[in-house]
Amino acid sequence: MAYIFFYSTAFSLISYSLALFDPLTIGLGAAAVLGAWNSDFLKDQTYCRYKECCNERSIPANVNALKTKLVDLYGQHIVKHQLIPALASHLEKRRDSRKSLVISFHGTPGTGKNMVADMIANSIYAEGLRSRFVHKFMGRAEYPSEEHSASYGYKIHDRVKKALEECPRSLFIFDEVDKMPKGAFEALTSIVDYRSFANGVDFSQAIFIFLSNTAGVEISTHLGNLLLKGILRENTKLGDFEKILEKAAYNLDGGLSKSSLIEAHVIDHFIPFLPLEKSHIYQCLNAEFARYDMEPDQKVLDEIVGNVVTYDPIHGVFAKSGCKKLDKKVAVVAYQRGR
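-> structure tokens emitted (339 positions)
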């Protein structure tokens, strides 16, 4: 590996320099060098200046950067209020975490679950999503078969354990959890439970994020009922939804169905992504056009919204696919205008 070259070069220079001194000085110098070696000092000062390492330089854990990024998340005040303190308290250096941080995102498509997971990776790691300490599991693509759920579970367990052996401060993102077979996460429970160390591996510093469309309908129904009672959307809180999410995740089909992760109460936060309304769709559209340095007139915006957005049949105000399909529609308009 590259850092071996650095170490060998450093020791060659040190050995040459020590030859100029008396034996006592040589002994003291050698002890100092060995101490530096054992503390990984040389690695931090050489190899890790040029390559990604499991240290603060490569993992700055910039929660303030995440807070800035979340400005572009529309209609999700609960996510903003809950996520920042959850991550900040887990990443705080003064505290020794007793377990890994486990968060489950729930909501209908296009409400921002994947976008927020990506924002977290890009804020915690200097290399962002390209970091070798960020591990993304694609549910339906990687784990399609119900009959192989047990073997999937062992593969996930082994992959996570090996990642944590390399870097305890790793991030694991599980996408499309609702499309994964029941039982896929059973072997994972032992890792995320209240155990700091097992077989020499530190599990307590990791972050696990589950993304699921499960309970999207339940979130929309409950939010609609709260609005009918006169409660403003902005005044709803996590406590209005968390029990609903936990119950739905446990009882509905998907990777968390009847899961010991829920039975053992190791999922720290069930966070709802509320269904988006028309005003949020316009915000998403304006943000997409801004990426092309375009300011479209209201007619263009209205036409896209009218052609793309359909609403839930019960309340008639929640966009079924959220902002999911807007980027491609905007890309077409930008192309037609030579942007």
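Residues 276-338 form one domain.
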